[in-house]
UniProtKB/TrEMBL annotation:
Entry GO MF terms: catechol 1,2-dioxygenase activity
Pfam family, one: Dioxygenase_N
Listed EC numbers: 1.13.11.1
UniProt-recorded name of the protein: Catechol 1,2-dioxygenase
InterPro entries (alphabetical): 1_2-CTD_multi_dom, Catechol_dOase_N, Cchol_dOase_actb, Intradiol_dOase_C, Intradiol_dOase_core, Intradiol_RC_Dioxygenase
Gene3D superfamilies registered for this protein in UniProt: Aromatic compound dioxygenase, Catechol 1,2-dioxygenase multimerisation domain-like
Gene label: catA
Organism: Rhodococcus indonesiensis
Amino acid sequence: MTTIESPTAVASGNAATDKFKGERFTAGTSPERLSAIATEALAGFGALIRKHAVTYDEYRVLKQWLIDVGEGGEWPLLLDVFVEHEIEDVNSRRFRGTKGSIEGPYYVPGAPELPAQCALPMRDEDRVHPPLVLRGQVTDLDGRGLDGARIEIWHADDEGYYSQFAPHLPQWNLRGTVVADAEGRYAITTIEPAPYQIPTDGPTGQFIEAAGWHPWRPAHLHLRVTAPGRQPIVTQLYFAGGDWLDDDVATATKPELVLDPQVDDAGRKVATYDFALDPLAD
Ligand code: BEZ
Ligand code: FE
């Protein structure tokens, strides 16, 4: 893994790229399917080049920028911001349970196991932010609690940094694998996340700025929920009334995934969310 010394886009991009490169994926795509997709992609490029009369200077800048994206290790970041939401949408159409959302580049498998009622590992400086309790149940499509459910959760700190992608954070900060009880119930204490700005000091950020767009995602929790015999889901939860909820740079919000936490007698914000998992496809 690349040594990361400071929390920069290039450092976190390189860490995300190294993590992704660690596995070799295969897709079983037939030559016919590959040819059909590539032909349409190239035709689409051709059409937009003709429509906008793209110049040679613009073409050279594009080539240079694509090289920068690779050298900056930002392919996972760039693709997850602008493309993953379409892939997620197409691939989750057949499911009836809880809606999914993009995984993004910062998932790390193998976070330490925590009991059904737990607090995520965090630093003293994280503790100054309001506690948030996320609780609920993992069920089948008829609302019956599932035994053996696990909820992997990860989120950024209030400066927008994810542990293992910024060098100053402990390895599993704000990450955990929560083992729900025999009825699928869980209650996780963490801190309320803040809106998150995707790294702006690399080529992805330069492109966003050059286009006059913004780099913000609404505050969110990432989750991967599994249970034996059930289709795993990767999703995110957002917060009612939060900034950027209707203008997410990654186009990954869905109305079904918005929490509305209420303050309890102890002054904690508490949100309830049940995850319904589809049966595994045959
Ligand atoms: C995220 O943390 O949610 C994220 C970051 C970069 C690209 C896409 C998603
Ligand atoms: Fe995120």
